[in-house]
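Data card: per-record layout.
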Amino acid sequence: MNKNKKKYVIAASAFVICFLLFILAVRVQRMYAANVTNEQSTSQKKQSNTTKSEAKKSIDVKNEKENKKEDKKAEDSSTKAAAAKNKESSNTQTSTTANISGASSSSESNTQANSEVKPSAAENIKVKPSDPDEQYSFQFIDTVNGNNVFLKKNVDNMEGDTVGYITEKLLDEAKISFKATGSASTIYFAAINGLEEKKAGKLSGWCYYVRKKGENEFEKPNVGSGQWIYHKGDIIVWKYLADGIHDGYSDDWMK
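The structure for this 255-residue chain is written out next.
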């Protein structure tokens, strides 16, 4: 009897122990599952945050690129508008002030523009035997102080360059001082060899005249010196005049 009782006690103890182990195993499994779930949730949350961050970064980069494009478009529009304005200003300056290689003031521009409305027969200047030496293609004359010819040069090797560019080069080579504004096609000579515009009168200044190869008359171009192309055989005469607008347009133009 005692032996059977011991067996029952041992069996009951074993059952209780197994039951406790089972409950413990269940709890451990639940704890493990909870930890795994938390880790997965944390991982998913991190991944989600990373994805959101990357998406936001991508959107920010896209917005920045779009803003740059818009800024560039605005800048290009502004640049084009400024260029158009400068071109319009340059065209206005050239057309209204070509008789003195460009404009120096708005009042003179208006006077000069009005002075260009003359009969076509007066646009050319006849050449006399006493006119510029044909051996020199570029000549500089001070008509205010005794028709002083202070520079004569032959530049037939510079065909295709503009009168303005050649004039700068000749004056530099001869070490003759000059003042010029603008550059290239808009260059304007305000003073040469100490002879400045407006110093010999309100309308005084420098004008250039051209006698094309094969022709016998000088003409006063209606464009600035930076736009007139020199060709071999042409004769260019720069003149300092007391009145660069009403300069005569007659046979005595050298006086």
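Known properties of this structure: Residues 138-241 form a domain with the Ferric Hydroxamate Uptake Protein; Chain A, domain 1 fold (CATH 2.170.130.30). The first strand starts at residue 124 and ends at 126.

See the next section for split statistics.
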